[in-house]
Design goal:
The complex is a heterotrimer. Chain A is mainly α. Chain A is built from 22 helices and no strands. In chain A, 65% of the residues lie in helices and 0% in strands. The N terminus of chain A is likely disordered. By secondary structure, chain B is of the alpha+beta class. In chain B, strands 2, 3, 4, 6, 7, 8 and 11 form a 7-stranded mixed sheet that branches. In chain B, strands 1-5-13-12-9-10 form a 6-stranded mixed sheet, with no helix packed on it. Chain B is globular, with a radius of gyration of 24 Å. In chain B, 45% of the residues are buried. Chain C has 2 domains: 112 residues, no CATH class; 109 residues, Cupredoxins -  blue copper proteins (Immunoglobulin-like, Sandwich), CATH 2.60.40.420. Chain C has 6 helices and 10 strands, in the order H-H-H-H-H-E-E-E-E-E-E-E-E-E-E-H. A 5-stranded mixed sheet of chain C has the order 3-2-1-5-8, with no helix packed on it. Chain C has a 5-stranded mixed sheet with strand order 4-10-9-6-7. In chain C, helix 3 packs antiparallel against helix 4 and helix 4 runs antiparallel to helix 5. The N and C termini of chain C lie far apart (76 Å). Classes of the chains: A mainly alpha, B alpha+beta, C alpha+beta. Chains in contact: A-B, A-C, B-C. Chains A and C meet through helix 7, helix 14, helix 15, helix 16 and helix 17 of A and helix 3, helix 4, helix 5 and strand 9 of C.
Chain lengths: 621, 243, 265
């Protein structure tokens, strides 16, 4: 891409490589080719109704169709034109590359294979918002169904599907909620880069993820999934055709995460501005990079677990079928070797956003940058050694419960450091109570509750009672939703002016904040009690003794739901008609606030040179 | 920061309120659709109450009865006038939702037309929870079947809690061998059926929500044969409401 | 602290004086008060909420579990109190409006605070770990019950019903009946997918796996009703995979066995 960089941003004419195929391709052609691929595959493998091994063949046809949809879409949108040219010893011309960057193409570039990191960031933002809205809607239906005992509102099949699809939609959305929009849009500017290290891979990561969305939705039309988002075998082997949608989603999503993770990591390592030594990198960049770097080793195990589930379902390989010598424990291991680091993949960027916000809004330097890095690194390091705490009661090697309990409880020390950094930053400051800063105060409480309840759960005798109960559900919502999502929403309020050129509507933001946070406490404190009383997770119906706690939870859920609808309104309204934002509305010192809106194609007219870290606030600094 | 905006505050407020209402409406509509989709495809089967009473252990109970059939495939089900289900699975009929009166002596009759292999859990070869711990198979009282002699079971259970009486009934249905001539009760409309008629009685407690399912693995081709017909609501599983 | 505003305190001769100077500061005093209030709240919650809402304690394992919930809440109360105390103090000092607040002190770090914080949180973690390991060990000891006196119960999880078999007594049941004060060994397996055997009031839980037998032991210490649930999502009717049971006197238990066609050993 060196040719690109040598041209000046301003005087460049809009490229028009009219003869090139890439000008003809967009999301529409992708969908057409993808659908053709999918149907061709399905009809090629579709079994006759009375075929022996009907389910195996049905799984083969459906899963194959889903994966070929993804491949076909990527071909149709032109993702492989560059690699194909390499095969024949050429590459895209400079003009074509410039065209792919989307300069001057207005809204159309959002529907194309666009390599500009800012376009990809907005694509992620819209995609994530949609997924959170859909997942949130499912949560509302789950809570409505649980408002009264008896499971009268929604039947068991649909309820179980709601639970599983709410789970996986939210997990996927939460993994990318911070590193997708902000990691792509803001982070390269923050480190003074002109773009990501691999812009075409960046576009690939988004469009691969995009192809996973219809695959996930197809679960609804194939009978749903009965397994929850953990997809434990052998239940997943027994499950109907909807399970293929789950497997397909994970296989596709794992590719997207790997591509995005490597790209972000490479960008931060290689593309930092001159003078941005490691101790001058903004803390959000550190947190986001650690998060995606942690996902790089974690996700392949999930992908492998899904490949094995798929072969068990298609070819009767029996990896997880005890009847032929397999073991469900194998699945549980592979799943949680991904599953526990993944929790921190979600949490770290959320906390890092708050650490980025805090110094700006109290006008003090970040307290102990080193402690923050030690906290992140400690959590990331320990998180790969704790997975079997999800398996204390599985019956697998009880002698290892002790060691896993020790590693799990050790995580409280680096987590404590993260608290210290945030507390030290606000200590003796006057916090400016703007929307982004409110999130920090909410997270202090939410992460604390999530942390303390995590200590009970890490303890084997207590987990013997609490495992698989509503207590666990409440605990991880406190960390993932209460901390990580609140952090991401704070990030949205903080960077909204840079990403849209307008301020997020404040009154609506405050209303949304109080509705979601108060509703959240009501919802999950109620659920903690239900869990302590002994209500299992993922149940469509429950005993009458849990009536009141569930009713309280449902009331809280409606508050949360209303709050998020208000936030969605605020985002849409402000994006279109909000107050025009000044270049640096918060008076922050990181690089993204030195560029105007709209951010020029290559971000900086002149490459910035960094002489200090971005936290030089405060008297005497 | 600027205070002027491109829209007036009252317009903004209205737009926000409309948006919230629309949002709630969308979620509500989808929720209601799912509610409709999870409803039973057929009307609930109400037990026929009779004016007779029976005295058990010194207590008098009113009597009621219900008749079910279990059909090996869609075709057989259709032959018996039961066409509600989509898949060609083994299925109970005429409804998967049974409504029984509370504190009543309920007599159930199940016509069973299927073959079978072996139970996953031999416990369900036992008759449990019926009056006398027995069921009547074609006129003979039986209290258990071997785990290889069962075609399906009708297993009624629920979530026991202080406000809902425990109710557990398990009745295994014997295999129909090739050429078996079933018991022909006089009121049965079928004149020529191959199968067994199983009759049993139990006493319902107070009002409550229960479920029934089959414990014989008949989801052929799936893991533990418990997928397909077994795991799709409304074929080998259903609800029981005691009202 | 190396910045100018702290300079006078730096000159204070004795550590004691420095501490007392520290507590003369308004924000420190406020923080202290808030810390105490939050700590007290967490202690009260811990002592009250779990014993109030958790099911009846009917075994030593359940007792240990409840003790951990209460103790860990109380132990972590000071830390929670401090975190929330500082946070609440910051809220009393907030700045509103459309212009940023005045600059605060440019404190970039404070070595002693970081060290003390890490050491203290490490100690709390150590307490939790040691406590957990001791309870776990007790748990394991309780688990090695006397094979001669223990009652064996074979538990089978089938999609979506539990069944219990008492091999020594020749009884099978859909309800879990246990005699009081007699050690019991559960041998748990599954007929199909994974389930998790959870007799609520006994405070134990273990998965039922296909073709594996898992074991767990306990001793019921109190008469009363048992709720047995499945704690692992197992498909369509997972929610309904529940049954009841009872811890009864030895005589009642023997009567139950014989009236169900079993024989008392």
């Amino acid at each position: 891409m060196t040719t690109l960089h040598s041209t000046s941003t301003h005087s460049r004419p809009i490229p028009n490589p009219a003869k090139s195929l890439i000008t003809k391709l967009n999301m529409g052609t992708g969908v057409v080719v993808g659908v053709i691929f999918a149907f061709a595959t399905y009809f090629a493998f579709r079994p006759a109704a009375d075929a022996s091994g009907f389910y195996n063949q049905q799984n083969k046809a459906l899963l194959g169709a889903m994966l070929m949809w993804s491949v076909g879409f990527l071909i149709g949108i032109g993702a492989f034109i560059g690699p194909f040219r390499w095969l024949i010893g050429k590459d895209l011309t400079a003009e074509e590359q410039l065209y792919l960057a989307g300069d001057g193409q207005g809204i159309k570039r959002y529907f194309k294979y666009c390599t500009d990191h800012k376009v990809v960031g907005i694509q992620y933002l819209v995609g994530v918002t949609t997924m959170l809205a859909v997942g949130g809607g499912m949560a509302m239906m789950i809570r409505t169904s649980l408002a009264v005992p008896g499971g009268h509102f929604i039947g068991a099949t649909i309820y179980n599907s709601l639970v599983g699809l709410h789970g996986i939609t939210m997990i996927v959305a939460m993994i990318i909620v911070a590193t997708g929009p902000f990691g792509n849009y803001i982070m390269p500017i923050m480190i003074g880069a002109r773009d990501m290290a691999f812009p075409r891979l960046n576009a690939l990561s988004w469009w691969v993820l995009f192809t996973a969305i219809p695959v996930l939705c197809s679960a609804w039309f194939l009978g749903g999934i009965p397994t929850g988002w953990t997809a434990y075998a052998p239940l997943s082997i027994q499950a109907g055709p909807g399970m293929n949608s789950f497997i397909g989603t994970i296989l596709i999503f794992a590719v997207s995460t790997a591509v995005a993770g490597m790209n972000i990591t490479a960008t931060v390592i290689a593309m930092r501005a001159k003078g941005m030594k490691w101790n001058r990198v903004p803390i959000f960049v550190i947190g986001a990079t650690m998060s995606v770097a942690l996902a790089i080793p974690a996700f392949p195990t999930f992908m492998l677990a899904m490949v094995q589930t798929a072969t068990d379902r298609v070819f009767n390989t029996g990896f997880y079928d005890a009847n032929v010598g397999g073991s469900g424990w194998l699945y549980a291991h592979l799943f949680w070797i991904m599953g526990h680091p993944e929790v921190y993949v979600i949490l770290l960027p959320g906390i890092a956003i708050l650490m980025e916000i805090a110094p700006v809004f109290v006008r003090k330097p970040l307290f102990s940058y080193n402690a923050a890095i030690m906290g992140f690194a400690g959590i990331a390091g320990l998180s790969v050694l704790v997975w079997a705490h999800h398996m204390y009661i599985s019956g697998w090697t009880p002698t290892l419960n002790g060691p896993f309990m020790v590693t799990t409880e050790m995580i409280s020390v680096p987590t404590g450091l993260l608290f210290l950094v945030m507390l030290g930053t606000i200590w003796r400051g006057k916090p400016w109570m703007k929307l982004p800063m409110l999130g920090l105060f909410a997270v202090m409480w939410n992460l604390l509750i999530g942390g303390i309840t995590g200590i009970y759960l890490s303890d084997v005798p207590a987990d013997n009672y609490l495992h698989g109960s509503m207590f666990v559900t409440a605990h991880f919502h406190y960390t993932l939703m209460g901390a990580a999502l609140t952090g991401a929403v704070a990030g949205l309020a903080y960077w909204f002016p840079k990403m849209t050129g307008r301020m997020l509507n404040e009154p609506a933001g405050y209303i949304s904040f109080w509705f979601t946070q108060i509703g959240f406490q009501v919802l999950f404190l109620g659920m903690f009690i239900a869990g302590a009383e002994g209500q299992p997770r993922r149940v469509v119906s429950f005993a009458a003794m849990y009536k009141y706690t569930n009713m309280i939870s449902t009331a809280g859920a409606y508050l949360v739901g209303t709050g998020f609808i208000v936030l969605l309104w605020a985002v849409i309204h402000s994006w279109r008609k909000g107050v025009i934002a000044p270049q640096n509305p918060w008076g922050a010192k990181t690089l993204e606030w030195t560029v105007p809106y709209p951010v020029p194609l290559e971000n900086f007219d002149e490459a910035p040179i960094i002489t200090s870290d971005p936290y030089g606030y405060g008297k005497g600094n | 920061m600027e205070t002027t905006t491109s829209t007036s505050s009252s317009k903004r407020l209205i737009s926000a309120l409309v948006f919230v209402v629309l949002g709630v409406a969308v979620v509500g509509t989808v929720g209601f659709t799912l509610h409709t989709l999870s409803a039973d495809p057929q009307k609930p089967l109400y037990a026929t109450k009779s004016s007779e009473t029976i005295v058990i252990d010194g207590k008098s109970y009113p009597k009621a009865s219900a008749v079910l059939g279990v059909y090996p495939d869609k075709e057989t089900a259709a032959k018996h006038g039961y066409t509600a289900n989509k898949h060609d699975y083994v299925q109970y009929g005429p409804s998967s939702h049974l409504v029984l009166p509370a504190h009543t002596y309920v007599t159930m009759t199940i016509h069973a037309y299927d073959g079978g292999e072996e139970l996953n859990n031999p416990y369900f070869g036992k008759v449990v929870g019926t009056i006398g711990g027995t069921m009547n198979v074609d006129g003979v009282d039986v209290n258990s079947l071997p785990s290889t002699g069962v075609q399906h079971t009708w297993t009624l259970h629920g979530i026991p809690s202080s406000s809902q009486d425990p109710l557990f009934v398990n009745v295994p249905l014997p295999i129909v061998e090739e050429g078996d001539k079933g018991f022909l009760p006089t009121q049965d409309p079928g004149t020529n059926f191959e199968g067994h008629t199983v009759t049993f009685s139990f006493i319902t407690g107070g009002a409550g929500d229960y479920v029934w399912n089959c414990e014989y693995p008949c989801g052929d081709g799936s893991y533990a044969k418990f997928g397909a017909a077994m795991s799709a609501y409304g074929y080998m599983s259903g609800k029981v409401t005691v009202a | 602290m190396s910045d100018n505003t702290q300079h006078e305190e730096e000159l204070s001769p004795t550590p004691g004086q420095r501490v007392s100077n520290l507590f003369k500061r308004n924000d420190v005093r406020r923080t202290t008060v808030f810390t105490f209030l939050w700590t007290a709240l967490f202690v009260i919650l811990g002592l009250y909420i779990y014993p109030k809402f958790m099911p009846e304690v009917m075994s030593v394992d359940m007792k240990a579990m409840e003790r951990i919930m209460v103790a860990f809440t109380v132990i972590s109360a000071p830390i929670a109190g401090l975190v929330l105390g500082i946070t609440t103090q910051a809220l009393t000092n907030r700045h509103t409006g459309n212009t940023p607040p005045p600059d605060g002190p440019a404190v970039r770090t404070n070595g002693p605070v970081v060290v003390v914080w890490s050491v203290v949180s490490g100690l709390f973690c150590l307490i939790a770990v040691v406590w957990g390991l001791v309870e776990l060990n007790t748990f394991a000891n309780a688990a090695t019950v006397d094979e001669r006196t223990a009652l064996h119960v074979e538990v089978v999880g089938s999609q979506w019903v539990w069944s219990f078999k008492y091999p020594e007594l020749g009884v099978e049941s859909d309800k879990l009946m246990l005699p009081v004060d007699r050690p019991v060994t559960f041998d748990i397996t599954s007929a199909d997918v994974n389930h998790s055997f959870w007799p609520l009031q006994l405070g134990i839980k273990i998965d039922a796996n296909r073709l594996q037998t898992t074991h767990i032991n306990t001793t019921p210490t109190k008469l009363g009703r048992l709720d047995v649930k499945c704690a692992e999502l197992c498909g369509l009717y997972h929610a309904y995979m529940e049954t009841s049971g009872e811890v009864m006197t030895s005589d009642d238990f023997n009567n139950w066995v014989t009236s169900n066609g079993g024989h008392v050993a």
